[in-house]
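quick q for whoever's on today - can somebody do inverse folding on this one?? i tried earlier but teh output was garbage lol. tokens:
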């Protein structure tokens, strides 16, 4: 059976992405996950793409469309995670391929994402997928 790529829209579909998303975001808690995703969808335009194989979520991409002065309309990937138990099976490449299709359909000129400097395996994957490092992302916490 071929893996399925669908947008998670219902409460059950969103909730089914939690265990995979938590592998990248361990600070997330199950009780607040659905409400947080719903709030981001409603107020920030977040979209959640789930890749399922044999009825089990194996990969998740959270993304949104933005307009920036320097590059125009872009698809920004907040999170892209494949279940650590099934990595290197092409799921990540399938998610990115679908994100490219979504970006083109939505009139985007590029895809952008941020990856922490410590995620060397992810960087190798992104390089293989044709991504390049173009800038530094600076961060300063408030409060």
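ok took a stab at it. sequence:
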């Amino acid at each position: 059976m071929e893996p399925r790529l669908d947008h998670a829209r219902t409460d059950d579909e969103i909730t089914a992405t939690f265990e995979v998303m938590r592998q990248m975001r361990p600070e997330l808690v199950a009780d607040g996950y659905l409400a947080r995703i719903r709030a981001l969808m409603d107020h920030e335009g977040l979209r959640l793409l789930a890749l399922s194989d044999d009825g089990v979520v194996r990969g998740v991409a959270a993304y949104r469309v933005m307009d920036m002065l320097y590059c125009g309309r872009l698809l920004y990937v907040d999170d892209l995670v494949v279940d650590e138990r099934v990595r290197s099976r092409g799921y990540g490449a399938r998610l990115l391929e679908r994100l490219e299709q979504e970006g083109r359909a939505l009139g985007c000129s590029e895809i952008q994402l941020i990856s922490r400097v410590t995620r060397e395996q992810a960087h190798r994957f992104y390089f293989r997928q044709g991504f390049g490092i173009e800038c530094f992302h600076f961060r300063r916490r408030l409060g």
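fwiw The longest strand covers residues 56-68. also The CA atoms of residues 18 and 127 lie 27 Å apart. so keep that in mind when u check it
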